[in-house]
């Protein structure tokens, strides 16, 4: 105990328990995509591109009453300490599914029957909490693509390290800590669209952790908004 | 095998009827909203497996088999045994199965079941390093999905938990000269707790436990929570598009905890010798 949080409540990277890593979002970073975003969340570096709404290929995948959404979460081989094989791992397949579901909750899929939407997420460097940063950036990329949404989806993780409930685990805290609890949240609708947990929490600790995660997502939402405002209102375009 | 993407047109048309039933506190199969279907667990159904269990949750039917071998440990956990959960949708499990490698549904199922069991510490993997750094027990829990009628998460979890809890494995020791050999004794796995998975689904404004296939076709969202015996939650997975309010989740966990205690008793009765 005590190796991830010191007596003063400082974490390995000098942060306080409820403190988020620096987050920077850029909008419209790829020319060819219909929408795109780049996020640096701590040392996570992630590009997200959105293509669509577009025709569905192969055609039999088309849904008569709504948009068909595909999502690929992928980590580059050089994004982690030991080279990751470029083939999608079981973890990446699961994350692609839960990220898609977290975003689909916000997208007005019923407005676009028989169309497809592709969301491509490439983790260039991973630093703990990459699924959250991916959702945060994907939501901005969707806005950049002009996809109608009920709300933005903002995401971050909370966790438990050395017995403390903390916001936004970094790589070391994620690997050596007791609990990782990623959350995605629609701040204006007060709705959770992604919730996963591994590790042990008492009920009371869970309630506190969920509350902290919601506050974290609200901060992320502010950063998403100002990134979009910077792109659309401040630049001379 | 993977599940093909059904259009669920008929089910969607039935959603209205389902909602009107739920408003009166009923479900299509006459259950209450928070009732489980009967849980039937049979253990030691496969002699050649070190542990096995067949679970019927209503018409959902799965069988888990545990096989054990010696293997090299993972590099990052040299002093721990290995536990791997794998699931396979058999081609006859539903009319909507497609051939091919496990799809995202099968992979998510295996990973969520694995997470609940691993994080609960059910199997004390630190006691499964025969010769740390070199030879450890590798526990494979393979699940065959025989018939799909909803809530595969819980059925699969109960099957793997029951198979692990009743598994009998050969004991090994390290000789004076460092070679690993079987002692000839058959021992139990080091089991510390019985984790119980509870799955809830939201349909409109209603929350139901243990959704059937017919209900899963129209649910808005799903939440699986795994409870350990020491009053902790050890894994959570939200699934399906759709969303929960934070209050809904907190209230749901309270309800699910009580249900987990009931089902743990059923599992414990089934695995007791």
Question: Could you characterize what this model shows?
Answer:
The complex is a heterodimer of chains A (237) and B (273). With 237 residues, chain A is of the alpha+beta class. Chain A contains four helices and nine strands; from the N terminus they run E-E-E-E-H-E-H-E-E-H-E-E-H. Chain A has helices spanning 90-104, 130-144, 171-176, 203-234; strands spanning 23-27, 35-41, 44-54, 68-75, 116-125, 154-161, 164-167, 179-186, 191-202. A five-stranded mixed β-sheet of chain A has the order 1-2-3-5-4. In chain A, strand 4, helix 1 (90-104) and strand 5 form a beta-alpha-beta unit. Chain A starts with 22 loop residues before the first strand and ends with a helix. Chain B is an alpha+beta fold and 273 residues long. Chain B has one domain (28-271): 2-Layer Sandwich (Ribosomal Protein S5, domain 2), CATH 3.30.230.70. Chain B has helices at 9-23, 104-120, 152-165, 213-216, 246-271; strands spanning 2-3, 39-43, 51-57, 60-71, 82-89, 97-98, 129-131, 135-147, 168-174, 180-188, 196-203, 206-209, 221-227, 232-239. In chain B, strands 2, 3, 4, 5, 7 and 8 form a six-stranded mixed β-sheet that branches. In chain B, helix 2 (104-120) crosses helix 3 (152-165) and helix 3 (152-165) runs parallel beside helix 5 (246-271). The interface between A and B is large, with 37 and 40 residues. Strand 9 of chain A pairs antiparallel with strand 14 (232-239) of chain B.
What is the share of helical residues of chain B?
A: 25-40%
Share of β-strand residues of chain A: 25-35%
The CATH topology of chain B? Ribosomal Protein S5, domain 2
The CATH class assignment of chain B is: Alpha Beta
Main β sheet profile of chain B: 6 strands, mixed
Secondary-structure element series of chain A: EEEEHEHEEHEEH
How would you spell out the order of helices and strands of chain B? EHEEEEEHEEHEEEEHEEH
What ranges of chain A have pLDDT less than 50 throughout 5 or more consecutive residues? none
How confident overall, as mean pLDDT of chain B?
93
Share of residues in helices of chain A: 25-40%
Taken together, the total number of domains of chain B comes to: 1
CATH-assigned fold name of chain A: Ribosomal Protein S5, domain 2
């Amino acid at each position: 105990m005590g190796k991830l949080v010191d007596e003063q409540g400082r974490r390995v990277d000098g942060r306080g328990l409820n403190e988020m890593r620096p987050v920077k979002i850029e909008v419209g970073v790829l020319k060819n995509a219909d929408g795109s975003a780049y996020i640096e969340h701590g040392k996570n570096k992630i590009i997200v591109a959105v293509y669509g709404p577009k025709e569905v290929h192969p055609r039999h995948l088309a849904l008569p009453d709504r948009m068909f959404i595909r999502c690929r979460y992928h980590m580059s081989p050089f994004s982690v300490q030991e080279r990751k094989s470029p083939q999608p791992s079981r973890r990446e397949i699961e994350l692609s599914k839960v990220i898609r579901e977290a975003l689909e909750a916000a997208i007005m899929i019923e407005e676009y029957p028989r169309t497809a939407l592709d969301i491509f997420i490439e983790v260039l460097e991973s630093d703990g909490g990459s699924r959250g940063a991916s959702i945060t950036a994907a939501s901005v990329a969707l806005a950049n693509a002009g996809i109608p949404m009920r709300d933005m989806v903002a995401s971050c993780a909370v966790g438990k390290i050395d017995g403390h409930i903390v916001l936004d685990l970094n790589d070391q805290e994620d690997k050596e800590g007791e609990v990782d609890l990623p959350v995605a949240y629609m701040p204006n609708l007060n709705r959770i669209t992604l919730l996963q947990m591994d590790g042990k929490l008492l009920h009371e600790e869970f309630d506190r952790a969920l509350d902290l995660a919601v506050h974290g997502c609200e901060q992320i939402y502010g950063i998403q908004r100002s990134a979009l405002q910077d792109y659309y209102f401040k630049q001379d375009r | 095998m993977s599940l093909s993407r059904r259009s669920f047109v008929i089910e969607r048309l039935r959603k209205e009827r389902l909602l009107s039933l739920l408003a009166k506190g009923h479900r299509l199969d006459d259950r209450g909203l928070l009732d489980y279907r009967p849980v039937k667990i049979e253990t030691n159904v496969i002699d050649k497996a070190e542990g096995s269990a067949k679970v019927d949750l209503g018409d959902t039917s799965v069988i888990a088999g545990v096989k054990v071998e010696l293997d090299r440990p993972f590099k990052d956990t040299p002093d721990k045994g290995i536990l791997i959960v794998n699931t396979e949708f058999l081609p006859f499990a539903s009319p909507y199965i497609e051939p091919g490698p496990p799809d995202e549904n099968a992979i998510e199922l295996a990973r969520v079941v694995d997470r609940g069991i691993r994080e609960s510490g059910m199997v004390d993997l630190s006691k499964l390093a025969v010769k740390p750094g070199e030879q450890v027990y590798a526990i494979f829990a393979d699940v065959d999905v025989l018939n799909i009628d909803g809530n595969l998460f819980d059925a699969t979890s109960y099957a793997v938990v029951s198979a692990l809890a009743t598994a009998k494995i050969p004991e090994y020791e390290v000789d004076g000269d460092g070679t690993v050999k079987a002692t000839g004794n058959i021992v139990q796995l080091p089991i510390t707790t019985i984790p119980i998975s509870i799955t809830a689904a939201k349909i409109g404004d209603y929350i139901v436990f243990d959704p059937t296939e017919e209900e899963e076709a129209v649910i808005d969202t799903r939440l699986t929570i795994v409870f350990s015996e020491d009053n902790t939650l050890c894994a959570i997975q939200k699934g399906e598009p759709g969303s929960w309010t934070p209050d809904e989740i907190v209230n749901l966990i309270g309800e699910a905890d009580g249900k987990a205690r009931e089902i743990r008793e059923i599992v414990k009765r089934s695995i007791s010798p």
